[in-house]
Amino acid sequence: MFKHILIPTDGSPLTLKGVKSGVRLAKALGAKVTGVYVSAPYVPPVLPEGAVIYVPTADPREYKKAMDAHAEKALAVIEREAKAAGVRCETRAVSDPQPWQGILKAARARKCDAIVIASHGRGGLGGLLLGSQTARVLSHSKIPVLVVR
Asked: Which of 68, 112, 128, 134 qualifies as a cystine partner to 119, CB 3.0-4.6 A?
C-alpha cells in the first residue's frame, strides 16, 4: 500500500493528532515517514509614504533564526514519535508563502505516496473565513490524503 507518508506539522497540539495517526499508520504498513514544517518566507514591513509610525527593525536573520528554532522543535515531536514506534523518519523544514503549497511540494520532492494531516474540522462560514490549509491540500493533492480530526 503506502511506502512513504508525509506528515505536516505546525507545532500545535492539533497537529500532534495527525503526527500520532501518521506514525501508527506507517508502523502498520511498514512505511517510512517524512515530517515537514512549512514557514512563511520573510517579508519586510512596508509602510505607506509619509507614515510616521514606529516599527522596530525587522531583521531577516532574526526571523530565520526564530523560524528555524520553531521548526526544529515541531519536527522533533515527529522524530520522537517515529523513534518510539520503530518507524524510519526524516524531517524537512521548508519555506513557502502558502503552507499548503509547501506541503505538496515537499510530498513531491520526497516522493511520498500519501499525506496524513490534521484538521480543525471547521465547516461552513468558519472554514470559509479561516481558509483551511487542509482543505487546500485535499483539493490540490494528486496523492491520497488522510485527514485526522
From this structure: 134
**pTM (whole model) above 0.85:** yes
Contact (CB, 8 A) for 120 and 135: no
Element spanning 90, H or E: strand 89-95
Residue 35 CB burial class (10 angstroms; 0-12, 13-18, ≥19): buried
Mean confidence (pLDDT) of the chain: 88
Measuring CA to CA, which residue among 5, 3, 1, 2 is closest to residue 106? 5
Q: How far is C-alpha 83 from the geometric centre of its chain's CA atoms? A: 19
The CA–CA distances, whole Å, from 119 to 28, 141, 145 equal 22, 16, 12
Distance CA 80, CA 83 (A): 5
Task: Cite the DSSP H helix spans in 2-59.
Answer: 13-29
50 against 1, higher pLDDT:
1
Q: Are 6 and 114 in contact (CB under 8 A)?
A: yes
- Please answer whether residues 107 and 141 qualify as being in contact, where contact means their C-beta atoms are separated by less than 8 angstroms: yes
Residues 6+ apart with CB under 8 A from 22: 5, 7, 33, 116, 146, 148
